[in-house]
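Project standup — Tuesday

K.O.: blocked on the structure for the chain from last sprint. Re-posting the sequence here as requested.
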Amino acid sequence: MAMRAPWVAARRWLSRSKMPELPNAGRGVNVSELLQSAMGEEEVEGAEERDVPRVRRDPNDVSVLLFPGQGSQFVGMSRGLLHYPNVRELFRAAEEVLGYDLLRLCLEGPKAELDRTVHSQPAVFVSSLAALEKLHQQQPTVVENCVAAAGFSIGEYAALVFAGAIDYAEALYAVKVRAEAMQEASEAVPSGMLSVIGQANSNYVTACLEAREYCNSLGIKNSVCAISNYLFPDGRVIAGHLQALEFLQKNSKKYSFVRVKMLPVSGAFHTELMESALEPLSEALKSINIRQPLIPVYSNVDSQKYRQPKWIQRLLAKQLISPVKWEQTMHAIYERKKGISFPYTYEVGPGKQLGTILKSCNLKAWAFYKNVDVTEDVSKQEKDP
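H.V.: unblocked you, prediction finished:
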C-alpha cells in the first residue's frame, strides 16, 4: 500500500467544522483533553503505515520545506493567503487559543505590537501554516512529495505540525506559552542579539569571553554572552547582556568582525537568559500529544533528525537555551555525493531569510529554492491576463 501524504496527518485539526472553545489553560492542564472534541479519537487514515520503509526517489521529484522564525514577521503578512481554503479557519482557531485577533494584528499591526515576542511567534507560526495551505493548493505534489522539513526556532513547531508530529491547536498552545515565557524572560534582564558577519580569522570565543569579563568589571553577576545562532559560514548571532553586545560593537575590529548589527528583538534568545522560560514550556509540552513525525524533521539543537517523540519534547524545551545550529542543519539536509542532484526547496512563511542563508551555505542547493509569497493579492492576479 502506498504511503499516505504527510499533509493528510498534519491537517487532522481541520477534520471537524468547528474548533472547540478553549478555556484559559494554566500550567499542567491536559490540553489533549481540552482539544479532544476537535481532534477526534479516530486514527488518521494511513497512520499505521508510519513505519513503512521509504522508497528512494529521484531528488528532482522531491522537496524540502523550510519554515522561518521570529523576525520574519511584517504588517500585512497573510493578506494574500485569505482566499485559500482553511486559512481563515486557521486564524479563527488561533483566536480561540490565543484570546486575541491574530489575523487583524498580522494585517493591520501596529508594527510595535506585532514585533513583540508574545505576538510575533504565534503570528509567524500561523502565517507559515497558512502559506502551506497556499502551496498545497497551487502545487500539491510539492507538499505530498516532501522528504524533509526544518524550521528556524519557532519555525520548528510549524515543521512538526506539517510532519504530523503535533496537532495544530496543541502546537499553538505550546507556542503561546513559549512566547509569553520568553517575553517575560526578556523583560527581566536588559539583553539582546547582535548579528555578526565575520571572516576566517574571526575569534568568536575570545570575543564572547572578553565581553563577559567586561560585564563582570561593571558588577554584572553571571554575565551572558554567547553564540545563539549559527547561520552560515562566518555568519553568527551573538546574544547576551546589552553591555556585552555594546562592548562587541565598539571592539568589532579587534575580533576581525566585518559587520555587526543589533537585531530588533527584546531578549537574548537561545542563551541561559531564557532559563526562566524552561519550566512553563516544559509543562506545556508534557501536556500535549507528540507523535513520531511522518517525514524527517531536523532539530535546531543538534541538527539531527528527530527519532522519537520523547526527544521532540525534550529538545523543544532545550532549544530555548541552546544555539540554533542552522548552518549545520543545512549541511545535514543537503550533503550528498558529487553528481547527485538537489531537491526543490520551498521557504514556507513570511520573508526570504532562509533562502538567503541557504545561498551562503550551499549555492547549488539554493539554485532549486523558491519561497511562498504571503502578500500576493490573488484577486488582482486572477484579473490579470
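K.O.: great, moving the ticket to review. The mean pLDDT is 86. Strands lie at 63-67, 146-151, 191-197, 225-232, 235-241, 259-262, 297-298, 324-325, 344-348, 369-372.
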